[in-house]
Specification:
The complex is a heterodimer of chains A (147) and B (133). Chain A has 147 residues and is of the alpha+beta class. Helix content of chain A is 21%, strand content 37%. In chain A, a hairpin with a 4-residue loop joins strand 4 and strand 5. In chain B, 34% of the residues are buried. In chain B, helix 1 packs across helix 2. Chain B is built from four helices and five strands; from the N terminus they run H-H-E-H-E-E-H-E-E. A five-stranded mixed sheet of chain B has the order 1-2-3-5-4. The two termini of chain B are 20 Å apart. The chains are: A alpha+beta (147), B alpha+beta (133). Chains A and B meet through strand 1, strand 2 and helix 1 of A and helix 1, helix 2 and strand 1 of B. Strand 1 of chain A pairs parallel with strand 1 of chain B, so a sheet runs across the interface.
Chain lengths: 147, 133
């Protein structure tokens, strides 16, 4: 009754460990994992069927990349409802539907000329993202349920 | 917004703020969190039975975050030998987290072993709350 059973079947979480091969990309990329402090992961179980999963990469004590995922459990399976991450040089939001569709919106471009400026933007983006996701958790869930 | 929902949201926000800081991550590690293990948001009015229903008994220690509208408190909930807690007190599946925390605070006990029907027992350990509210 109400036990956490779906972890093994959880959809694949955002992989922040891969680095692009080839030429230097034209957008911000975080420091490689091997020189970073850590890349912790925090599943926060808000209710029996609602979870936030926070992953972040830290360098010099700063958040240099993150993903915050809102997930819901239905029939023993965890499904992604909403996500904010910072891939390909932008902080993006991703809204998912139960039918498997995804709508991506660019929120903030991450500057690439200066790492410290980029990390400040990412840190501020993280703060905004977790507040927005948690405040609008039920609206995201309702959208996912009905689409 | 219900009070319960509001408290859960505040707890989630406080946890999200915590993990973005070195002090917060250190506090969670000190509280018993291990990378990738879930943190269960709970209400002070939740019972031990409620928590046991959410936590797999073979997957402890589980870090339970309790938000009482003023601060986060952490309880490390793990299997133990069980047994009588003594002192004329008793915890059971209907005991609320608030009752347990109050008892542990007044008795100045940092850990509490207990036995519950249909469960092999466990250990509660309160963690000094970090500064995050």
């Amino acid at each position: 009754m109400g036990k956490i059973t779906g972890r093994s079947s959880e959809r694949r979480l955002v992989d922040m460990s891969s680095e692009p091969d080839g030429p230097v990309p034209s957008f911000y990329t975080p420091p490689p994992l091997e020189i970073c402090d850590e890349e912790p992961s925090y599943p926060i179980e808000l209710t029996d069927s609602d979870r936030l999963h926070i992953r972040m990469r830290l360098y010099g004590g700063k958040v240099v990349e993150f993903a915050i995922m809102q997930m819901t459990r239905r029939r023993g399976q965890w499904h992604e409802v909403f996500r904010v991450d910072c891939c390909h040089g932008w902080i993006h939001s991703h809204r998912f539907t139960q039918g498997g569709e995804e709508k991506t919106i660019r929120i903030t471009e991450i500057p690439r000329a200066n790492d410290h400026e980029a990390w400040d933007v990412i840190g501020a983006g993280y703060d905004k993202a977790h507040e927005q996701i948690i405040e609008n958790w039920e609206a995201h869930l309702e959208h996912w349920r009905t689409t | 917004m219900t009070d319960d929902r509001s408290l859960r949201i505040k707890a989630g926000q406080a946890l999200a703020r915590m993990v973005a800081t070195a002090a917060g991550r250190a506090a969670l590690r000190e509280a018993g969190h291990r990378d990738g293990h879930p943190i269960f948001v709970s209400l002070a009015s939740d019972t031990l039975g409620d928590i046991m229903n959410r936590v797999m008994v073979d997957d402890p220690p589980a870090l339970v975050a309790v938000y009482d509208n003023t601060q986060l408190r952490f309880v490390l909930f793990s299997r133990g030998a069980g047994g009588d807690i003594g002192d004329g007190h008793e915890v059971h599946a209907d005991s609320t987290i608030a009752m347990v925390l109050d008892y542990m605070a007044t008795s100045q006990r940092q850990t509490l072993e207990f036995a519950l029907t249909n469960w092999t027992g466990g250990q509660l350990k309160t963690i000094e709350p970090p500064v995050f509210a």
